[in-house]
Design goal:
Elements (H helix, E strand, L loop, with lengths): L14 H9 L9 H14 L10 E7 L14 H11 L4 H9 L2 E8 L10 E3 L17 H20 L4 E7 L4 H12 L15 H18 L7 H5 L2 H15 L3 E4 L2 H13 L7 E3 L8 H7 L16 H19 L3 H4 L6
Parallel strand pairs: 1-2, 1-4, 2-3, 4-5, 5-6
Helix pairs in contact: 1-2, 2-12, 4-12, 5-9, 6-10, 9-10
Amino acid sequence: MSLNFNIHKPDEAIRPSIQEKIDNLNKPKGSLGRLEELAMQICLIQQTLSPSLAHPCHLLFGGDHGIEREGVSVSPREVTWQQMLNFTRGGGGVNMFCRQHGFKLRLIDVGVDYDFSGIEGIIDRKIARGTNNFLYGPAMTEEQFCQAMQIGSDQADDCINEGCRCLCMGEMGIGNTSPSSIWTHLLADVPLADCIGAGAGLDQPGIKHKYEVLRQAVAHYSQQHDQSPLPYFGGFEMIAAIGAMLRGAEQHLVVLVDGFIMTACAMAAIHLYPAAQDYMIFTHCGSESGHKTMLALLDAKPLLNLGLRLGEGTGALCAFPIVGSAVRMINEMNNFDNAKITKYF
């Protein structure tokens, strides 16, 4: 894996100054709870007492999955390209939330099984028209893995060059809960059955079939002793999201992590670079099997639990106002001295 990132834990030397500023805001000590924790994390990420969430950007990567051919999803593969087109017209959930919260949305095709030539609004970075079917072998080559990581990193760079200080990622790829489930199983050592859920709406027989397909895929993979599970099972859109997360962490951005699939990507990113977790805020806990387990293993405290299972990064976008409140708190609240209020704790 040739792409390397220089990611270190944030310098802790500034922590006492951050804590002093938070504690001297005109409020009882600790009374803004989680907002104070978020403010501390964001200040450490940016190494400042006056943090910013300027020019927030949302990267939505699209890609299809060979494993979809095995009937592991209730939705057919064409929904991937149909939704990507819908996004260009502003009609998706991701569009609505990006408009609401002031995010710049970038739609990137890294592996959709469709020709988007001449369609405005989709950035063409197509690696292939979907991954290979990992039931029978690796989903992608090592070269394709590195290419997808580079694409994600480059997209993050484009946002950074525009002044972005807060980045989140989403995905569009029918079948991508399957690789997410397997990554959870293999990277977090969770029983496979506990990692598999309904995805976009499978019934119980559908979930049973999905489990059997993924069990066979893992059994076949276990015979390949020298291969990483990331390229073996992953989707191009998922690997690109990992690349974006890691570049964001390297450049000290606030990285918002959405639900099950993006948490699986975050876990993979942390597997590669453990310090990347310090730059991540986990925003939503969904109902997909394995998600709560992943979050618990990462000791992550998601901001929301709204029962969302849309994907697209919508949970991260919905949580953004809470993150914004933490930044406003430390930047805009008066302190006791300036407000001429006696400290009452």
